[in-house]
Design a protein that fits this description.
Elements lengths: L2 H12 L1 H19 L4 H21 L1 H6 L5 H6 L1 H22 L4 H15 L15 H25 L9 H25 L1 H6 L5 H30 L5 H4 L3 H15 L5 H24 L6
Helix pairs in contact: 2-3, 2-8, 2-14, 3-6, 3-7, 3-8, 7-8, 8-9, 9-11, 11-13, 13-14
């Protein structure tokens, strides 16, 4: 295997773009809600998404092979080592984190319990969450809510007041609803990419069940609803401006994903690029805040 193909395989197996956007979202919402940077929580967020994505590659061999996902054969050949190594790293990290940040332990256990049930046939009838219509996407999105909202807020609460004076539980709930719907649209765009492999494996995703046109209508509705929540919440005084400005993201995604479909369909490169763009927007947000530019704070 050549060096470029090895890099592509490792990138596909570990999904650094998912780790990046989840970690930056954890830092961002911790800053927005709590006024600081939850570095330990963000590091655990990155590790947890790395482990879940790694273990996902072990069990998704069938659909990944149909979808020609890079690194599929390599992950399958080393599946036992990946599974054992990943679970060992998880166990060690839980012990260390339990000593440093014990309040976060139930939230991490909830996240990994969800991840294991998503990837492995632990449900009645030896089914995975990934095989369940709608619940599949909602479970993945819930993972982001746990790691990007609960992790930084719980981390902050261990050392002092969890929320800034202009942030209320309603503020957090509205932003969680915004992020849930926005992230759910991401999940369905990814499912557009995987439509052939998911159909061949009998996975009832939105594009498989409703077709591309039906999935697009659902994506559009999710993006517009997320936009409405964040801007109406700001107009009502429930969401501070520094959070409401994130409403730019759904508008941008609406334009970009439609352009992808017009260009011939959603590809792996499109999905990866869209995720890296989201991570770049979050990084730019922090740059704007740190520079004290108009609207910051």
């Amino acid at each position: 295997m050549t060096a470029p193909s090895t890099v592509r395989a490792l990138s596909s197996i570990t999904r650094p773009h998912i780790m990046a956007i989840a970690t930056l979202a954890c830092l961002t919402f911790g800053h927005v809600f709590c006024g600081g940077y939850a570095w330990l929580a963000a590091g655990l967020c990155a590790l947890d998404w790395f482990l879940v994505n790694l273990l996902n590659r072990v069990v998704d061999f069938g659909e990944d092979r149909v979808n020609a996902v890079a690194g599929t054969e390599q992950a399958w050949r080393h599946r036992k080592l990946i599974a054992r190594g990943g679970l060992a790293v998880l166990a060690l990290s839980l012990v260390i984190q339990g000593l440093l940040l014990p309040a976060l332990l139930p939230w991490r256990l909830a996240y990994h319990g969800l991840g294991l049930a998503y990837n492995w046939p632990l449900l009645p009838g030896k089914r995975r969450i990934k095989q369940l219509y709608l619940i599949k996407n909602a479970a993945s999105t819930t993972g982001f809510i746990l790691t990007c909202f609960a992790y930084p807020i719980v981390s902050s609460a261990q050392h002092g007041p969890p929320l800034l004076p202009d942030v209320t539980p309603l503020s957090v709930a509205l932003m969680a609803a915004f992020f849930f719907l926005f992230e759910l649209s991401y999940e369905i765009i990814y499912d557009l990419r995987d439509r052939e492999g998911d159909a061949a494996s009998g996975l009832p995703t939105f594009p498989v069940v409703h077709g591309v046109a039906g999935a697009m209508r659902i994506i559009d509705s999710l993006l517009l609803a997320s936009l409405a929540i964040v801007w109406l919440g700001w107009a009502a005084g429930w969401i501070p401006w520094r959070a409401a400005v994130m409403g730019v993201a759904p508008l941008l995604q609406l334009v970009l994903y439609k352009g992808m479909l017009r260009s011939g369909g959603v590809t792996s490169a499109h999905c990866t690029g869209l995720t890296w763009l989201g991570a770049a927007l979050l990084a730019a947000y922090h740059g704007w805040e740190l520079a004290g530019l108009p609207g910051a704070g």
